[in-house]
Amino acid sequence: MRLRQRIRFKGDSGTSYLWTDQTRLLITAVPEPDTIWMMGAGLVAVGAAVRRRKR
User: Which of these, 24, 6, 8, lies nearest to 16 by C-alpha position?
Assistant: First the structure.
């Protein structure tokens, strides 16, 4: 026997949401801005090293 539960809640904007056993939640990782800046700086450094090596 399967229990069917429904949960209703209101969001910040006043929108009403309904959570059922059919609801799927997808959580994705969002990088922090510092991580993006560090990756960009690393790519620039690698590009500069490659350019310097070609000369």
Answer: 8
Of how many residues is the chain composed? Answer: 55
Find the domain containing 29 and state its range: 7-54
Looking at the domain assignment, is residue 40 inside a domain?
yes
Q: Which pTM value belongs to this model?
A: 0.44
| Domains identified in the chain, total number | 1
Q: Identify the pLDDT of residue 38.
A: 94
* 1 is a domain residue: no
| Distance in angstroms (rounded) separating the CA atoms of residues 54 and 31 | 33
